[in-house]
């Protein structure tokens, strides 16, 4: 509960790996990028993802072979897989779907389009983690339009405050330590210190609390923060 879906990207083109990581993290997912097919198998055994984006041509083991192997593993059978491939391999599309990929995207692709497919597949596999509309007390957050309302007023948030609120709205009442917020919102790979969390919590509070409303963010001394339903 309260943990963002993990998307594992298996892609050997470094620039594309970076682009996908950036966009997936902006959607609130945790992201693991692996560059080699043979490493992907080991990585997925260690950390089971909620969705896999798999490139077709990979060093080590090909994407299509990996897809076949994943589908043979009992714990990976239901994990959605999106295959990426280069244009002009349309005949291979059939092979891709036949090996058990859930979706198929041709490069170069539109990033918003790919993000929409990721969301749709995650929603199908696990409806609660990717509900479009989150509601806690009088706060409503729409993941699709990236809009937040409190009562009927629109709350304007920066991208970090939006992700922070979304993360906390998944588990109302749960106390998150600063480290958990850093991992969940900023991602484990980025270096930011605990003070950064306090600064963004401060901004989020300021944006949410206009007029005579109750502060929904509770500071738990020595522990962290939680979001409480009014
Ligand atoms: Ca490739």
Give structural notes:
There is one protein chain. The protein has 230 residues and is of the alpha/beta class. It has a 5-stranded parallel β-sheet with strand order 2-1-3-4-5, with helices on both faces. A 4-stranded antiparallel β-sheet has the order 6-7-8-9, covered by helices on one side. It has a two-stranded antiparallel sheet with strand order 10-11. α4 (90-98) links the parallel β4 and β5. Helix content is 40%, strand content 21%. α6 (159-169) crosses α7 (178-186) and α6 (159-169) crosses α8 (194-208). The two termini are 20 Å apart. The site of calcium ion has 5 residues, from loops.
Compose a concise summary of this entry.
The chain is built from eight helices and eleven strands. It has helices spanning 14-26, 37-46, 63-72, 90-98, 111-125, 159-169, 178-186, 194-208; strands at residues 6-10, 30-34, 51-55, 81-86, 103-107, 133-136, 139-142, 147-150, 153-155, 217-220, 224-227.
